[in-house]
Amino acid sequence: MAEVSTDAAVDQLIPALIQCFGVIILGYLAGRWRILSDFEVQGLNSYVTTFALPAVFFKVMVTIDFSGVCWSLVAAVSLSKLVAFLLAFCVTLMLSRKSQLGVAAILSMFVSQSNDVALGYPVLYALYGDLASYVYLFAPAQLVVLNPISYAFLEWHDLKQNARKSLVSPSHSKDASTTSSSSSRGRWRCFLQCFYPPHPTSLLQVIWRVTLSPIFFMTVIGVVFNFILNHHIPFYVDGLLKIVADSFSATALFTLGFGMVGKMGRITERQIHMLVAILMLKL
């Protein structure tokens, strides 16, 4: 009986893998043969992040029955992502030469984020059936909580950059030993400076930009409408959301393949080490 179920799972998994990686290969070939330009693919990326993915999360958040969700599983996966996020963020800040807040935000997002919806869902659905719908709960925890934190720190990095440069500017009147010790102290002062609160107006500006993110906004609105509509989308609206949401996976995987063209030749040794470190943290 177990052998039959295993064979059935494999029979469903292989078409799912062909589906996903086939679209990725098509995107790679389109980039390799210059069928599409970078500018045209940027338009596809904008469509995915502005319309398709927000439609996916809005539709799922409205229709899901939260009473039947195993929240302990969602909390466990979300907590593991949070630990990886914070670990990557703090280690990057401590090891970077100038305590680069923007770099730490980007790397922590890379470590904690995975392509759950476009690539993970078809594979998990082939193996576990309806349990794959939990992907739509894992991803919002990343997109609504962790990613906005990274975006906020990226905005914060731009606002604090000038102040940080003035803080760590070297004093040319000191001798070598004094400069060395002051450089060490300046590094830790720079690390702490990253967390000094900015001007209230700047902080509100950061929060406003994060809130206006289509993915963040539509996910939160979807949860609100879940209770208003009793997890049922009106018939006429459901057709529009379905056709936009269904276009997400193919478009996202296609642009993923396109983005792989020519990348390996431009990766430096330092970037390879960074990539290996990110993969190890993901494992």
From TrEMBL:
> Per UniProt, what is one Pfam family of this protein?
Mem_trans
Instruction: Supply one GO CC term from the record.
Output: membrane
In the UniProt record, the signal sequence range is none
One BP term from GO: transmembrane transport
Instruction: State which residue ranges cross the membrane.
Output: 12-31, 43-61, 73-95, 102-128, 134-154, 206-228, 240-261
| Highest taxon in the source lineage | Eukaryota
Q: Which UniProt keywords apply?
A: Membrane, Transmembrane, Transmembrane helix
Membrane topology reported for the UniProt record: Multi-pass membrane protein
The cellular location(s) given in this protein's UniProt record come to: Membrane
Q: Tell me yes or no: is Membrane among this UniProt entry's keywords.
A: yes
Task: Report the principal subcellular site.
Answer: membrane
InterPro entries, alphabetized = Mem_transp_PIN-like, mTOR-Rac_regulators
Keyword hit for Disulfide bond: no
- Write the protein's name: Uncharacterized protein
Provide the taxonomic classification: Eukaryota, Metazoa, Spiralia, Lophotrochozoa, Platyhelminthes
